[in-house]
């Protein structure tokens, strides 16, 4: 019964997080039909986390005895989370998705590189741990997947949404680096408190960035699509999505829950096709296979151990 429950929640999380890429596109609009937050993508991300941050903070206050960060290490963890995990990740992602060449599926596939990048950054910040030759191959394979997905025109590297896809790649890299730095600080802070305060701080950082970019509330066209997308992203994808994530993290562990990054693109492609008439390209599929192959090479030992545990076999 527990296994079916975990599988159901895993698929729900993949569906919610995968369809979030479609919701971002829907809330932004397109150059041909600009609406919603098209002229203010960073403000869109900021308002999303205004709502999600308040909801998560209320939840943290309910489940954690002392949800307020204490000491330099805990505040440093929140700062890293706010700047990299929330602000940089979402600002790059939302701006990247304003380009129609970046479909919901393409964005989800590029973001799925994050677990592989996390391993690479972990090796860089922990000199005692070096990547093996197979690990280096896995990282290069994942990066090759992004290049295939970007499909740059040799005659004009700025064409075909290459720059926008690079921004989405920077989003994935920001999230990966933030994950490594929070582990390096190792403040022992409850994850609910860390996520909540990071969301609130990240929203503030993005409001400042949006103002610096010249984005104003007056630039927003409050269409029905924009309001629905904002509500879905704030409540379903962020607040409820992270609650499911916390629950599965405790039950499944980091390796299995990381696999949600590789199931989410399927739901991103389906929702993009159903609601936005997006058609995934062969490059999207090829890029996904390369990135997933790189992940399996990088995490081969952990995946093998996890597979043995699921099958009830003794680990070696």
TrEMBL record:
The chain crosses the membrane at residues 46-64, 76-95, 101-119, 131-150, 162-182, 194-214, 226-245, 257-276, 282-298. InterPro entries: AA-Vitamin_Transporters, EamA_dom, EmrE-like. It is a multi-pass membrane protein. GO terms for cellular component: membrane. The keyword Transmembrane applies. Keywords: Membrane, Transmembrane, Transmembrane helix. Residues 9-149, 166-298 form the EamA domain. The keyword Thylakoid does not apply. Its main location: membrane. It is found in: Membrane. This is EamA family transporter. It comes from Halorarum salinum.
